[in-house]
C-alpha cells in the first residue's frame, strides 16, 4: 500500500489528472477502473477522479511496488526504495522516478550556490518573481547548463519551501523566458495553481510587462508598433513584416498567430541615444529588439539587429557587450483568492549598473522628454 500526501503545490488539480501525471504508463481507463474498484482511494474513500485535490488530502494506491514502478515508467529505483511507515503503508514521495535523489538535489543546490546574483523580488506560496542578471539562462539549453530554473528549485529546497519528494509530482519552473543577455523580472511558479494562474494572465495579456532599454537616436514621442513576425530557426533571427492594424482580424490564422504589438514611451534623451520604456503587449522571440531596429532605433549593444559601429564605440568605452534590455516592471490584474495579494500589485527590478555607467554618454546633454503615452 502506498500513500501520497497532497501538498499546497499539488492542490487545485483533479484527482485523475494528478494520477495521470504520476503514473503516465497506466492509461486513463485503467486508472478509472482502479478508482471504481477502490484500488486507489482519496482520503480512504472511494473516488471517481473528478475531485479537486486540496492540501492535506491523502491518495492511497494499493499496488505492489513492482506494479507501481511499471506505471511510473521505471523498472528500478537506483539507490532508493520505499520507506516503510509505522502503519504498514509506504510513501513513494522519497522516490524520484528512478533517479538518484542525492544527485538531483546536488544539481539544484549547485545552481543555487553558483547563481547568487539572482534576487527574489516577490514571493508567496504559489509564485516567485526573480531578478535575472544578464548572462544567465532562463532554462537549460544543454544538459550541462545551470539555469534560473535549477536555481529556483535549489532556492526552494534550501529554504525548506520545497521537499524533495514533492518533485515527483510537480517541479517549480519559470513561466516566461528572457534571452540569456536580457536582464530583469522572470515569473516563476512554485505550485500547480501558481503555474495555471501565471499561464492564464500571460495568455490573456492581462499582466502588463514593461522593459527599459537604450536605443540609438532621439525618440520624440510614444507610439505602438505592429507587425507579423517570421523566425529563421537556423539563424536564430526574426524578421518583421508591417501590418495594417485594421486588417489583423481578417488575416489568415497563420498570420494572426504571428501578430506582434509593442508600445514604447521615451523617458529622456542622452546625446546619441534615448532611454525608453517599452510595453511588451504580445510576447514573441526577439520581438522588442527587432521591432525597435525596424523603426530605426536599434537597442544599444544588440549586435544581431543593431548598429555595429555604434555598439563598438560603447563596447570599447563602457564594456557594453550585450543588448541593454531589462524587464523592469510588471503590473498584475485583479485576481481572486488565493492570489488576492497580487491584485493590482506592481513589482519593479531596478536597472543594472551598466545603465548608470552609460548614462549621459554620447554627443550632447540629457533632455527629459515630456510626451504623451502611446495610446489606450
Radius of gyration: 25 Å
Shape descriptor = elongated
Count all strands and give the number. Answer: 17
- Binned strand content: 15-25%
Quick overview:
This protein has 376 residues and is of the alpha+beta class.
What does this structure look like?
This protein is α+β, with helices and mostly antiparallel strands and 376 residues long. It folds into 3 domains: 2-94, Structural Genomics Hypothetical 15.5 Kd Protein In mrcA-pckA Intergenic Region, Chain A (Roll); 101-202, Pseudouridine synthase (2-Layer Sandwich), CATH 3.30.2350.10; 206-368, Pseudouridine synthase, CATH 3.30.2350. Helices cover 25% and strands 24% of the residues. It is built from 10 helices and 17 strands. It has helices at 15-22, 28-36, 65-72, 101-114, 148-159, 192-203, 253-257, 287-294, 308-318, 353-358, and strands at 2-5, 40-42, 58-61, 83-84, 90-91, 119-123, 127-132, 173-174, 183-189, 208-216, 223-232, 237-241, 259-270, 273-280, 325-331, 346-348, 366-368. The strands form 3 sheets. Strands 6, 7, 8, 9, 10, 11, 12, 13, 14, 15, 16 and 17 form a 12-stranded mixed β-sheet that branches. Helix 4 (101-114) packs across helix 5 (148-159). It is elongated.
List keywords for this structure.
Pseudouridine synthase; 376 residues; single chain; three-stranded antiparallel beta sheet; elongated; 3 domains; alpha+beta; Structural Genomics Hypothetical 15.5 Kd Protein In mrcA-pckA Intergenic Region, Chain A; disordered C terminus; twelve-stranded mixed beta sheet
Amino acid at each position: 500500500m502506498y500513500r501520497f500526501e497532497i501538498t499546497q503545490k499539488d492542490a487545485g488539480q483533479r484527482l485523475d489528472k494528478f494520477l495521470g501525471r504520476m503514473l503516465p504508463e497506466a492509461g486513463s481507463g485503467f486508472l478509472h477502473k482502479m478508482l471504481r474498484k477502490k484500488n486507489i482511494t482519496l482520503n480512504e474513500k472511494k473516488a471517481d477522479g473528478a475531485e479537486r485535490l486540496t492540501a492535506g488530502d491523502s491518495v492511497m494506491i494499493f499496488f505492489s511496488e513492482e506494479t507501481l514502478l511499471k506505471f511510473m515508467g521505471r523498472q528500478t529505483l537506483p539507490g532508493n526504495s520505499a520507506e516503510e511507515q509505522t502503519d504498514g503503508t509506504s510513501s513513494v514521495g522519497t522516490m524520484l522516478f528512478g533517479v538518484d535523489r542525492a544527485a538531483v538535489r546536488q544539481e539544484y543546490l549547485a545552481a543555487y550556490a553558483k547563481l547568487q546574483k539572482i534576487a527574489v523580488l516577490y514571493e508567496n506560496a504559489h509564485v516567485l518573481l526573480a531578478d535575472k542578471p544578464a548572462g544567465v539562462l532562463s532554462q537549460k539549453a544543454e544538459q550541462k547548463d545551470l539555469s534560473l530554473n535549477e536555481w529556483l528549485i535549489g532556492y526552494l529546497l534550501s529554504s525548506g519551501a520545497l521537499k524533495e519528494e514533492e518533485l515527483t509530482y510537480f517541479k517549480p519552473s519559470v513561466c516566461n523566458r528572457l534571452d540569456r543577455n536580457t536582464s530583469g523580472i522572470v515569473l516563476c511558479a512554485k505550485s500547480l495553481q501558481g503555474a495555471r494562474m501565471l499561464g492564464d494572465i500571460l495568455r490573456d495579456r492581462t499582466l502588463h510587462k514593461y522593459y527599459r532599454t537604450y536605443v540609438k537616436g532621439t525618440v520624440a514621442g510614444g507610439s505602438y508598433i505592429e507587425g507579423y513576425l517570421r523566425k529563421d530557426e537556423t539563424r536564430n533571427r526574426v524578421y518583421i513584416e508591417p501590418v495594417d492594424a485594421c486588417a489583423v482580424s481578417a488575416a489568415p490564422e497563420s498570420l494572426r498567430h504571428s501578430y506582434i504589438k509593442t508600445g514604447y514611451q521615451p523617458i529622456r534623451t542622452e546625446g546619441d541615444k534615448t532611454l525608453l520604456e517599452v510595453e511588451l503587449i504580445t510576447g514573441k522571440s526577439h520581438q522588442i529588439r527587432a521591432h525597435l531596429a525596424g523603426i530605426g532605433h536599434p537597442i544599444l549593444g544588440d549586435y544581431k539587429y543593431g548598429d555595429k559601429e555604434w555598439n563598438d564605440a560603447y563596447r570599447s568605452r563602457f564594456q557594453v557587450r550585450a543588448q541593454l534590455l531589462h524587464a523592469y516592471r510588471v503590473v498584475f490584474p485583479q485576481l481572486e483568492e488565493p492570489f488576492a495579494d497580487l491584485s493590482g500589485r506592481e513589482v519593479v527590478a531596478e536597472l543594472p549598473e551598466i545603465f548608470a555607467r552609460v548614462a549621459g554618454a554620447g554627443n550632447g546633454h540629457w533632455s527629459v522628454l515630456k510626451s504623451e503615452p502611446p495610446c489606450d
